[in-house]
Design a protein that fits this description.
By secondary structure, the chain is an alpha+beta fold. The chain has one domain. 22% of the residues lie in helices and 21% in strands. The protein is built from 5 helices and 11 strands. Bound molecules: zinc ion (2 copies).
């Protein structure tokens, strides 16, 4: 009896899953849905020094820089959206080649695990701050940085330093407040005087949040589907 109920539920979840393959943000544009436009600050900290901003490159996919060491994420196509919106796409456009044991940046010497910095042998370590809050201590992400999916307003420092070295926030952090391709909201003073005006953008907000909500769980339901049989 119970097994039948579980299988039935799994079947429903599964079919819904098939219709909507990847509802992870950032979204590419779709009918009735604009593309997301996210920004993350990024820096490359090699043996204790941040290298200069990487140049802007060609970008057919919608994850790029503007010579500002900011990852601009507005996927043009599904192949660079959602779970495929990785730093690898960005590295390709700015001419960087980074893996878990090697970092090659335009105009810089390639560094490999064990190459010496002044304080000892270096290795690739990525530090990420999810919040702009100065109290956020950040966290280290091990492994290949190109697999990281940058999030909106995140700070990312890809470091090649000895184990345990201090890894600072990327120098491009303030650029997130001063982006050349984003018009600052003119409502800053208006919204505090007239809270009623805030109702205008609400329909969009509620639409956006109601769409991904039921689908945030598919990764989990996929695994439960696998478990049932
Ligand atoms: Zn942008
Ligand atoms: Zn752009």
């Amino acid at each position: 009896m119970a097994a039948v109920v579980i299988l039935g539920t799994a079947g429903i979840v599964y079919s819904r899953d098939q219709r909507q393959p990847d509802n992870t943000r950032p979204f590419a544009a779709a009918p009735g849905r604009p593309a997301d436009h996210w920004h993350a600050a990024i820096g490359y900290y090699i043996c204790g020094t941040f290298v200069p901003n990487l140049p802007e490159g060609e970008d057919p996919l919608g994850i790029h820089g503007h010579g500002d060491n900011v990852v601009h994420i507005h996927p043009f196509v599904n192949s660079s959206a959602g779970k495929r919106a990785t730093l690898e796409v960005y590295f390709d456009t700015v001419g960087a080649d980074i893996s878990d044991d090697r970092i090659e940046l335009p105009g810089q010497d390639t560094k490999r695990t064990g190459d010496r910095c002044e304080d000892g042998p270096g290795r690739i370590q990525t530090k990420v701050w999810d919040k702009r809050n100065p109290d956020d201590p950040g966290r280290i992400i091990e492994g290949d940085p190109s697999a990281i999916r940058p999030q909106d307003n995140q700070l990312i420092t890809i470091a090649f330093v000895p184990e345990g070295a201090d890894i600072p926030k990327p120098p491009s952090t303030p650029t997130l407040d001063n982006l050349s391709d984003v018009t600052p909201p003119p409502t800053a003073s208006t919204s505090s005087t007239a809270p009623a005006t805030t109702t205008a953008p609400d329909p969009t907000a509620s639409t956006t949040s109601s769409v991904p909500d039921p689908n945030t769980s598919p990764p989990a339901s996929t695994s439960s589907t696998t478990r049932v049989p």
